[in-house]
């Protein structure tokens, strides 16, 4: 990528420090990526142009898969202390009658509440505290990245940084651009936005109040083309409203009183403090490429989604989870760099689907003022048939990643394994805490020596379902997937299965060459039927 570089070429003299990974941007995606790498022993420097956490809230929601990612980063318990499980999402009509209700479970497939609300600055402080505990990570505040350039096809990436009035340079094996919508790294990757055709101006207000607020402890989406709105409780006495104002409107106290009246009466009250008011242009966009050479983009640098399904930050954290274990395998085990091609291939279709769902939800709230639109909205209540709105029922999108070398075609391939509580050391633990940070095999039957050798080649933990002491979730899941055993990637996605009745991992010929470590090649069994006895 020498010819497609961003920023000054060699304006900085002197030797540059080398680090395996440079992460541009210390928002939640960047810091989570650093923590996930650190858990695998990969060193990184996180560069952030601001010195402190941005003090105002932006993202407000996580789903259960994202809580699992925070678990992998080692902060889920602290996060639970500041998050508030939500009951779900309701679509209301202009008169605030419920048209459709999508309830979220307090314990979803991943073992966490399917929707939780939180305050972003609190999450960011938590992430940074966790980062400060890791010797593998450094966070450089006040460090603005002004150039990213890879030396040749195989060479290191040079990052030019402006800090305290002077420029310095870092070189890295890989650079992760977690630098948001205005990403400089995206330019370095040579990406352009694909417009997914949604652009609306909304006003977001965050409020602190002790007044009684009519609230069902979930998210309200008001589907009223003249006055669409979103409302949710974020904390003990913290609330968020989002309104699409008319072009001529100014949000003064009188208009605010009128807008929030369906939820709270502020006519005679002082105790209603707007702690933030911001104008946003909600957009739907996806970068046409997410990687060039050893430079990647993640989060808002790669995709922008309207907030109507609460998935903006979640999508970025999924990117970090998907990419970091692969990078670690390349850096530490000498795995083939083609492994990294799967990042964009797996993540982009999912991000696109999330954006489409958010656009559909936005359309349900705002689209059309004619009689046909009114009828369509009425139909939502009856059958939830507005295109995309049915997807809200399953908005945490536990749909399979596309089939590829690391997601073999089978009933379970590319899906996440569930996470029940299991027995551990005489107590109880979440499954992932027992599995550790690497690959894992969940098996209902004893493994043959050759399958065991494959698992060993991956450094996989082998867990026999008879011994997990879970509530039967795992056995039922394997049965439903018609599998005797499932091979899980470090991000808990099913890489491959041993089909019910025995056999080999079905796709080993595709994934073994990508995952092989230079130190410990994975041997492919010639024929490896499972032993059918129950003894080992
Ligand atoms: O579908 C859910 O459970 C939550 C959706 C959500 C969360 C946060 C903000 C939103 O506009 C929607």
Annotate the secondary structure layout:
Blueprint: E1 17-24, H1 28-39, E2 44-47, E3 61-63, H2 64-72, H3 76-82, E4 84-85, E5 88-92, E6 98-103, E7 115-117, H4 120-132, E8 137-140, E9 143-150, E10 157-163, E11 166-177, H5 184-189, E12 193-209, E13 219-222, E14 229-235, E15 238-243, H6 253-260, E16 272-287, E17 291-292, E18 295-297, E19 303-304, H7 312-333, H8 341-366, H9 371-383, E20 421-424, E21 427-430, H10 431-435, E22 440-443, H11 449-458, E23 461-464, H12 473-480, E24 483-488, E25 494-499, H13 508-515
Parallel strand pairs: 1-2, 1-11, 2-8, 5-13, 11-18, 22-23
Antiparallel strand pairs: 3-7, 4-7, 5-6, 9-10, 10-11, 12-15, 12-16, 13-14, 14-15, 16-19, 17-18, 20-21, 22-24, 24-25
Helix pairs in contact: 1-4, 1-7, 7-8
Bound molecules: ligand L7QG3D3K.
Keywords: Oxidoreductase
InterPro entries: FAD-bd (IPR002938), FAD/NAD-bd_sf (IPR036188), PheA/TfdB_FAD_monoxygenase (IPR050631)
Domain FAD-binding: 19-357
Summarize the structure.
This protein is an alpha+beta fold. It is built from 13 helices and 25 strands. A hairpin with a 2-residue loop joins strand 14 (229-235) and strand 15 (238-243).
Q: What count of helical segments does DSSP give?
A: 13
Low-confidence regions: 383-388, 527-536
Q: In the CATH classification, which architecture of the domain at 18-83 and 112-194 and 284-360 applies?
A: 3-Layer(bba) Sandwich
Task: Indicate the proportion of strand residues.
Answer: 25-35%
Q: Give the tally of β-strands.
A: 25
Which small compounds were modeled alongside the protein? the ligand O=C(O)/C=C/c1cccc(O)c1
Q: Class of the domain at 18-83 and 112-194 and 284-360 in CATH?
A: Alpha Beta
Return Rg in Å.
24 Å
pLDDT averaged over residues: 89
The fold-level CATH name of the domain at 18-83 and 112-194 and 284-360 is: FAD/NAD(P)-binding domain
The span between the termini is: 53 Å
- CATH H level, superfamily name of the domain at 18-83 and 112-194 and 284-360: FAD/NAD(P)-binding domain
Structural class: alpha+beta
* Largest sheet features: 8 strands, mixed
